[in-house]
Each structure stands twice: as structure tokens, then as C-alpha cells.
Amino acid sequence: MAAMFDASAAQFGGGGFMASQADTGVAMGGPKKFGNQQTMKSVTIKQLAEATSQAMDDQYMLDGEELSNVSLVARIVEAQEAATCLSFKVDDGTGTLDVRYWVDNEESELMQQNKAQWRVDAHVRIHGNVRSFNGERQVVAYSIRPITDFNEVTFHYLHAIFQHEHTTRMNGANPAAPSPMGVKPQAAAVAAPFMAAPAAGGIDAIGDDGLNHAQRLCKQIFESPECANSEVGFTAGEVMGRLNGQLSAQQVKDAVEFLVMECHVYTTTDDDHFKSTNC
Length: 279
Description:
Blueprint: E1 27-28, E2 41-42, H1 45-50, E3 52-53, E4 60-62, E5 65-67, E6 69-81, E7 85-91, E8 96-102, H2 109-117, E9 123-133, E10 136-146, H3 151-170, H4 213-222, H5 225-228, H6 236-242, H7 249-261, E11 265-267, E12 274-276
Parallel strand pairs: 2-6, 8-10
Antiparallel strand pairs: 1-10, 3-4, 4-5, 6-7, 6-9, 7-8, 9-10, 11-12
Protein name: Replication protein A C-terminal domain-containing protein
Main location: nucleus
Organism: Tetraselmis chuii
């Protein structure tokens, strides 16, 4: 199961989203005919790679619905400029993707400012359309905006999870089955909290929920009422303390890192406090 975050995801700490940021500094360009014709969907690059291709060119399906306008958050890892097109390769921790942004021959002052912001290692929000070029999927962007508040990154991933779960349920998918997002809805109550038995095959065996024994125990701690009701969540040390010696410090550390990468938990006030995305 591919990870939603890479090892650098800790810099994306924060549990909220400053809505005012989404309304400022938006750069518009490219093929305007694509904009706002269909619902915008928040996605990860992994989801785009797994979207099914239809017989019609540039028509893709995700979670049982046609995929057209998408919103994604990623880091620019390559940037190239041509006379009428800016080309980027972006990475969101789940994969890499080529992005194209068409420009006019006459460059405005605003475009010069935008190009200075769209630099390598900059984190940006991209709105665009899924297209195919030379057999490779890419996004033709009509909006690229630099991210200045990394709470927006957390918000994006949570929103992508919510849209995926909501859409699959609406389209009749089995909610108990593992999803492409790496998230599986859990039962609201756990009969014996924090004492789940290892899956058949040993403590490191992967169960039907996609987790091993250590990951499952830590996930249950993060889903406990105590953590859910805490404003800042739990640290790995607090999780270890509540497990009463069932796991070593390294096992807890590895499990928490996995849960972050699979977006079962997210950072809150800093890189050491976590809360469950299911609470």
C-alpha cells in the first residue's frame, strides 16, 4: 500500500486550514474552457495514477465518478520554461506527476511574479484537468498558488480522505474493504481496547485492515476518547505509556510513522503530537 506522505511530511504539521488563504493570490491561465465545468475533487497523485481510463481520450474514473477538475497539493521538484508553456514535476509523497501551465506570448508583470514563486522546492496548490500526453497522465493547470500556511496541506489530505470515503459509500462500495487512500473505516466501539491479538502469522503479519499488530494497537490509542477529546492529541511517548509495555519504543515510533504516512493520524500543534483522522 503506497504511502500518502513521505518522510518529510512532518513539516506539514497542523490540524486546521486558514480559509482566507484559498481566496488570495490565485493565478489563472491556460485553457479556460476547462474551468468550473464539473465538480472539483481533492486528490493525491497516487489516486490519479490509479484512476481507470475510459475508452474516450482523457476521460478517467475515480471512485465510480468521472474525474475532470482536480485539486492537489505538492512540492515542485523540477521546473522548465518554454515559449508558451511552463512544465513542472511535482511530488506529494504518494508519487510524482507532470504538470503543464500554458502561458501567453506576452508576459505580464503578474506572470513574472508567479514564475518567481513557482520555484523548485516550493509547495503549491494546483487546480487543473487530468489529461494524457504521450501515454502519460498529467495535469493541465489553470491555477497554481504557492502555499504559505502548511495547515492547508493537512486540510487537503483530510479533505481528500473525506471525499474518497463519502463517494465510495454513495456509490455502493464496501466500506469494510481497504481503500486506495490507505484508510479503512473502523468500528466506533472496540470490545477490548488496546488488547487486539496479533494477526495470524505473527506480530509483524499484516491483517485484513492493512495494519500489523503494533500499528493496530497505536491506532486504537489514537482513536480512544482520551485522545479524541484532547486538543493536541498524544505523543508517541504517551501512546507507549498507555500500552503498558506491550511495545518497545522503536515499535511505537515505527508504527506512528506508518500511521502518519497512511494518513490514519495527523500532526497537530507540532511534529510530536498526533490525532486520529477518524475522530
